Amino acid sequence: MQLYALRVLMRPRDPDLFSKGTVQKDISHFENAMVIAAKNLHMTSSTPSVHKKTSYTLKLSIKPTDGVMAGVISKLQKIKGHDKDFREYDVDNYPPIVWIWDKVEQVLLVERKTAVFKDAQQVAKAFEDLANNDYLAQLGLRIFIEPCLEMEDFWSEYHRLQFIDKVSFTLITPNIFGSSKQALTNDLRKLEKDTNANTVTTIFENKDGNLKLKGSHWAETLVDWVKDGGGSWLIKGRKTLKSKSTTVSSNQTAKIVLI
User: Fold this and answer.
1) How many CB atoms lie within 10 A of CB 61?
2) Does the pLDDT value for residue 6 go beyond 80?
3) What's the pTM?
4) Cys-Cys link to 236, which of 166, 181, 193, 204 (CB 3.0-4.6 A)?
5) DSSP-derived 3-state class of residue 52
6) At the top level of its lineage, which domain of life is listed (predicted)?
């Protein structure tokens, strides 16, 4: 089975939230949000507006226990059926996709099934939409989910293009899952404190297509940050001087785990 590795990042909507002591800095809030999301999706109401309409469905097979949670997720598909008189009708179809949560690593492993979600970014968005429900909103928290990437893929795509016009990195500001890459962490924390920004985009650009990032300490650090699920990258360039520009993004190079 092939699985995407998705990093779960939790951020306070108010930068002073945790220092006030009213809400604990604990990734268990994500687990609780998923439990509530699964419960709400299976509730019915005589007032349709009470529950937010969604094309997703979610089931917990293993509720949060000892840092592990698991279940099935899917997205509504319409397939065609035929009755005994060969009349065509629509059938709701929810192809099951297995997922596993590792609390220690703050990683979701999600089965790769492109017939349902075409790429890792769509899977991440589905979990974001489900997790960012009323429970987290009332706590003043927001969940960001990004695919983990293969570091080598950035440089592989970079070297495919002879002329590099632009490279951008979108970084999610430091969250509760660690303090590695300390210099960048410190700079982003200062920036976050001054601006309350959730994400920061850094752009390297040379309009003559002569951008040189290989060997750059900062480029290496940014690639390393993003590969752990801390954001995304985009490269724009040309294979030859006269060829049309092409763009490749980290969304096309998500890390695949085999089990």
Assistant:
1) 11
2) yes
3) 0.78
4) 166
5) coil
6) Bacteria
Q: Which two tokens stand for residue 12?
A: 């306070």
What's the pLDDT score for residue 193? 74
- CA distances 141 to 14, 49, 134, 148, 227, Å, are 8, 24, 10, 22, 24
Quick one: which H or E segment has residue 88? strand 88-93
Tokens 């969604």 correspond to 54
Assigned token pair, 184: 């960048």
Q: Are 150 and 227 in contact (CB under 8 A)?
A: yes
- Mean per-residue pLDDT for 156-173? 91
Cα 197 from Cα 75, distance rounded (Å): 31
What DSSP element (H or E) covers 220? Answer: helix 217-225
User: Could you give phi then psi for residue 87, rounded to 5 degrees?
Assistant: -80, 135
Q: What angle do CA 86, 91, 93 make, to 5 degrees?
A: 140
